[in-house]
Amino acid sequence: MVPYEVWTATLLVSIAYAHPTQPTRAELSLITPPPIPQTPEHLYYRRDIIDSLTSKAASYGESLLSDLGSAIPSYVTDGILPGYVDLPTGSQVLSSAGVSSSDLDPQPTQVLNIPGYGNWTGSQWNLRVHGNVFKQPDISNDTIDDLANLFLIDTSVADLDQTGQDQARNLTRAIYVVQQDDMNITVNILPGPQFGGDGESDGGGGMTAAGINQTIQLPYETTLQGDFDTFIKLDQANSDLTAGTGEIPPQRVNVYAQGTDTGNATSYLVSDNGLTVISDIDDILRVTKIYDPEEGLLNSFGRPFVQWMNMPDIYRNWSVSLPNMHFHYLTTTPEQVTRNYMDFVYKTYPGGSFDTRPLNFSDVSATLAIRKFLLDKVFQTFPNRKFILMADTSNPDVMRDYPQMAKDYPGQVQCIFLRNTSATDSSNHFPYNTEGFRNLNQQMYMFFRTPDDLTNLDIVNGQCYNSSIPQNVSFGYQGLPFGLETSNSNTTDNNTASSLLRGVSSWYSPLSLSLVLACAFLFSAL
Fold first, then answer.
1. Over the Cα atoms of the chain, what is R_g?
2. Alpha-carbon dihedral sign for residues 318, 287, 132, 171
3. Is 86 inside a domain boundary?
4. Would 135 be classed as within a structural domain?
């Protein structure tokens, strides 16, 4: 068993200095940009010369700690569930399931249609339609159980109750599908009297669109991974849709993919002004415990999704008191498991549009870049709307990307709300970095512990901070062992380990962190 202190040390170094690779231009080209005038791109950044130097120091520090016997996978430190890395596609699925391509041929083509959003430009609506086309192999129950067991740690499908077994099998079947490339998609668009994906009647949000019945073929075929993602122009002259100028409630339209009964989704036409909540899901809307891989996988595969405390009350209150609000759920969870997330959200939270990780963003570096890419896409699609960003501190990409959005898009970020998982769950040992919040107005953001901390805030007028909620932001790494924290203020801690740090001019050297933590662990063992 690897000592917790050594595990945390390696985890810290690998989080602190692993810069995710940005999406390649080939990857970006697979997703259609929003239909708005082009603005300066925010999708790329240049690493300065310091990055190359610190990466070498980080490599040395990681080597030092590896000598202590620790080997923590990078995707765990990045807040990604182990089972959700490099999921099988295409021939890998057939091989794993023991199914031939000829066995797949008679299976019906299915469509995962993800609820989209539409914007108003000039005199018409542009609706984003995105999802995946696939076939589901006929896999025996015994094989499905064997495959499902690969996603569970220290347990198996046989050990779960009936509800857990059903969930594990259904989710595994959703993962082991074969994507269909070069497919043409045609959609029917009608008023949306119901909410959510595939016509779920729960949820809420927006109003039913009036008078639309249009059939549109998407301009592009599906990608090699079976994905489609494009904006289509709705014919305003032949509809009774309300124009999207000013601030009006989102209009719901149902989008049906022809040729299948699985490709239905409710999408939202969103006006050019107003508030949009962009919300993560794991550990902010539901109990996942991504920072505890064993529990995280069990909560995803073997247990029903459970809301986090009374968070639905907060969202319900916003939806009722601010009827023009638009909800957008953005998760980096793989596209294949989207249905479970949509089903949970629409039965528990207000209806809204959705973004997940498409299959062309499949490896760890791309996964860590996809959140910023999707955030940019929403912000650029609605340049006059203001955004409320919701997530938790266990995701390094959130801690980096959310404050960066406030800098990249001045005036568009209304509030940033982050659940402090370290303060609310003793099983979370992941350090988190608050450096990005330096120089941001405290009234713009708040780290909170319970949903009730979000009550009685005037978010419409930009009051996002409850002064009664402790913040304790050091603008560096927090949640370190022994109460250590990093900042540029050279704060002195009253313990033996931190006394080793006195005189160090900067905590941001990976080598310094590695040596300090290693020494601290030696002292603590004495």
1. 23
2. negative
3. no
4. yes
Does residue 132 sit in the same domain as residue 41?
A: no
User: What three-state secondary structure class fits 264?
Assistant: strand
Question: For the segment 318-369, what is each residue's pLDDT rounded down to a tens digit?
Answer: 998 998 999 999 998 889 998 999 999 999 999 999 999 888 665 555 566 8
Q: What would the pLDDT profile of 478-501 be if each residue is shown by its tens digit? A: 987 656 666 655 343 333 333 333
pTM: 0.80
Helix (H) or strand (E) holding 346: helix 338-348
Q: Are residues 70 and 108 in the same domain?
A: no
| Domain range enclosing 18 | 4-26+37-77+488-525
Hey, how many other C-beta atoms are within 10 angstroms of the C-beta on 1?
A: 4
Residues 6 or more apart whose CB falls under 8 angstroms from that of 105 comprise: none
Buried b / exposed e over 222-252, threshold 16 CB at 10 Å, is bbebbbbbbbbebebeebebbebeeebbbbb
| CA–CA dist 46, 192 (Å, integer) | 44
The answer on 521 and 410 residing in a single domain is: no
Instruction: Give helix then strand counts, H and E, for the chain.
Output: 16, 18
Report the alpha-carbon distance of residue 114 to residue 339 in Å, rounded: 9
In a domain, 83, yes or no: no
470 & 494 share domain:
no
User: Into how many domains does the chain fold?
Assistant: 2
- Cβ atoms of 337 and 301 closer than 8 Å: no
Give the residue from 227, 232, 229 showing the smallest Cα distance to 189: 232
Name the percent of the chain in helix, strand, coil, to the closest 5: 35, 20, 45
Closest CA to 142 of 154, 156, 152, 155: 156
Whether 427 and 508 map to the same domain: the answer is no
- Beta-carbon contacts of 72 under 8 Å, excluding residues fewer than 6 positions away, are 2, 7, 10, 11, 14
DSSP assignment string, 438-481: TTS-GGGEEEESSGGGGTT--GGGT----TTS-----SSEES-G
Burial of 466 (0-12, 13-18, 19+ CB in 10 A): middle
Q: Of how many residues is the chain composed?
A: 526
Round to whole Å and give the CA distance between 134 and 166.
Answer: 21
Residue where a domain stops, chosen among 477, 497, 515:
477
Residue 196 has pLDDT above 60, yes or no: no
